[in-house]
Protein 1
Amino acid sequence: MRLLIANGYLIDPSQGVKAGRNLLIEDGRVAGILNYSDDVPEGAEVFDAAGLIVAPGFIDLHVHLREPGQEYKETIATGAAAAVAGGWTSVCAMPNTDPVNDNAAVTRFIIEQAERAQLANVFPIGAITKGSRGEELAEMGEMREAGVVAVSDDGRPVPSAGMMRRAMEYARGFDLPVVDHCEDRSLAADGVMHEGVWSLRLGLRGIPALAEELDAWRDCALAELTGARVHLAHVSTRGAIEAVRRAKERGLSVTCEVTPHHFTLTDEAVEGYDTNTKMNPPLRSRDHVQAILDALSDGTIDAIATDHAPHHADEKALEFDRAPFGITGLETAIGLAFDRLVHRGIIGLDRLVELCSTNPARIFKLEGRGTLRPGAWGDVTILDPNLRWTFDARRSRSKSRNTPFDGWTFQGAAVATIVAGRVLYTHPSLEDRRRAIA
Ligand SMILES: NC(=O)N[C@@H](CC(=O)O)C(=O)O
């Protein structure tokens, strides 16, 4: 099986490639980077990428696929379909399923379901503590053997510093990164949105920025104490970013991700009490969003991750106070990244690829991903920076529709998604770009 992605502009920060080149994939792996003038290899199918950017496959470090246990919200297959439709060749699945992925049997089940779906690669993340209850460490070694790439109690913080210290020491022994959902629950209490002027005006209980920042500082200090690899999930505040910036200056193994909704929206979006603006961490005030944009541009933020969190329409149709936290994000992330970051001059195209592919692969040590080096997996995301398109949530591949971005128009999109040399998604604008060569 041979696929030649021809006439595109290759951007691969892992090897400093930024040039018009052809990419050859053979039997699922990158076979080489060729010049436009080189002969088309015999028997290759040609994908014409003229005018498009060809990048190593995008990797989302943070999704909730809900299977096992909440298949009415999403399954591994529907989540992986939404992933490829959004330009993601790989997704990393958080363990807050039912049962929680805190043992090898659940890990293996997730991997088997993903293999059956034959869509995006799914890398499971195991729980830090049993049942993510924060009381007793989970069997990280067994889960690692079964295929987890990181550990996290995401959805919940690890409440005590002592437990987090032991978790980091334990995870370090297995070379697993610890991904923390930073939220001091004694401060967040039963808040439902960011604490500030808007929570006051809307009469909703607030979650102070400090709830995230305290845990972020704690985790950075513990990273120094334990030498563990620490990754902060969905950072949303100026203080959390400052903690990461300081940790990096000190040479610690600390990384962080940001979600598209946190770099796009402010807490003002909650004004209409739309429960699709309710997520954890909450949408923050303008000053925090500015800190995120600065950190995206100066390199403090390592990755863009969606925190795709599907919920059923009936659950989101409750009062703001009672609706669950979370929004879907796989199919709108790249549109938002182009529109809000690239076209506004906050990041360049190579930085976009770094944030969505090179760095995620490095942070979770995903072998043969995030690069187009010969021998790497033939996972490719093709981008059209200028395509204008409108997101219609009714046509989403996800089982859920809980997004604040329904009906939004974007400039820029992921227009084709290729996993191990198989073209799994092409935008309708590209349908005539593929031809077989005898
Ligand atoms: N991010 C969210 O708003 N929701 C997540 C869990 C969580 O992190 O609260 C979910 O699983 O629904």
Protein 2
Amino acid sequence: MARIDLDLAHSYKTDPQRDEDYALLPLKMSFRDGGAYALLGPSGCGKTTLLNIISGLLQPSHGTVSFGDRDVTRLSPQQRNIAQVFQFPVVYDTMTVAQNLAFPLRNRGVAPERIKQRVGQIAEMLEMSGQLDQRAAGLAADAKQKISLGRGLVREDVSAVLFDEPLTVIDPHLKWQLRRKLKQIHHELKLTLVYVTHDQVEALTFADEVVVMTRGKAVQVGSADQLFERPEHTFVGHFIGSPGMNFLPARYTEGRLQIGALSVAVPENRAEALQQAQELTLGVRPEYVAPAAAGDAHAVPVQITQAQDIGTHWLVTGRVGDGAQAATIKARLTPERPAPRVGDTVWWSVVGAHTCFYKNDLRIA
Ligand SMILES: Nc1ncnc2c1ncn2[C@@H]1O[C@H](COP(=O)(O)OP(=O)(O)OP(=O)(O)O)[C@@H](O)[C@H]1O
């Protein structure tokens, strides 16, 4: 295994001119030896391109890929010693489950005793011990995909195991189990894992660190907690969370924020960073919008436009400000008496310890 360092850009065009010509804009990133990473972002943001560049299926048009202190940019997946698991099962139907799992080891000339031991270990982790002697041909799609996962994980000597949306064919209940299982397997096997997904729940349950991507850019690499609490880019605030972060255009003047015609106070410890910015965007997660007393210095009046009871809490949508300056804001509120009513005007605090401030999409405070 090795630390993976990327310093590259990629365009599928022969003569890229503009940013839009790049599937990956210049990026510099490292994957720790033994870490579990997810590449997360919407369709077309460049996740698969990045994964294929790490594996060696694709060579970057610019820059380098290094494993430890070795430049592997021009090496194939075999030469890089990479294991891969794809969206759809890759298994030999005529072989048994055990033979399928053993295949990558037998190919490398591993001793039969060790193969038996390792296949047994992987099968147990994937809860397939009872199916070892069954032929793969008779198995359902999700059992076959479990074999693919097992084949990806069976070798101990790989530089990394790469997964490209591996749970697509798995039914929702088993998907939930397998996500947890993969995390547990990672702790036991200590392999470097890189996992592509567009599903934030999948990424956040599986990975120690998530690389959030949009339009060919990795905008933040962080733990679930960092991405939730301190999104470094407005895209992260918007993409992570359900619903995502609220954003309100604001202007900073003399210790106060003007949000449309409204004015709220800013704590002194945040003011210094905002002074330079003037025009900025306030970001606050629906979880941190809190009911406040009318006239509270950190709150704004909100007219409620929708209130959904979702069991453990209310998801309430409201409007801040009027006319062209009106903005939508959402809050997750714990069950209250009386219940929020559409049309009512309430005061919600939007400035607190969890509030973030952005200039040109980047966090400044
Ligand atoms: N072989 C190719 N030739 C030309 N353009 C490509 C090729 N593969 C991908 N692209 C383009 O590169 C960009 C990134 O694609 P990529 O498949 O890496 O994104 P992704 O995030 O993995 O998306 P998805 O989740 O839909 O697979 C997209 O604009 C896509 O159209």
